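Suppose a colleague, Dr. K., hands you the sequence of a protein chain of 117 amino acids and asks what its three-dimensional shape might be. Before reaching for any lab equipment, you can write down a predicted structure in token form. Begin with the sequence itself:
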Amino acid sequence: MKKIFLALVLILGTITSQAQSDKTVAKFKVNGNCEMCKVRIEKAANAVDGVIKANWNVGTKVIKVVYDSTTTNLTAIHKSISNMGYKTEILAANQEGYNALPSCCKVKGALEAPKKE
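The predicted structure, expressed as tokens, is then:
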């Protein structure tokens, strides 16, 4: 009986913790060039509390981010990537972050504000 009760408590705890997180998936463009960019962009996104997973595609320049929307938001993710020196769809690259990038990772126009569509 004790084992059944313990199993029920564990199951309910798992269901409750899953219900409390609101996983959201977002995709957006991030300017970058190479595998080193991929590492830095993903590191910046994953550094944001609430980001569960981030994967940037070198070919398409699109990052797919899975995050808990009760903990963070897209603006925070964009800002972290910008601070690393990369331009996103909504933010220009941060000057200090951009200056710290290796020359192969510097994308022309990264410091310019994104165009509104």
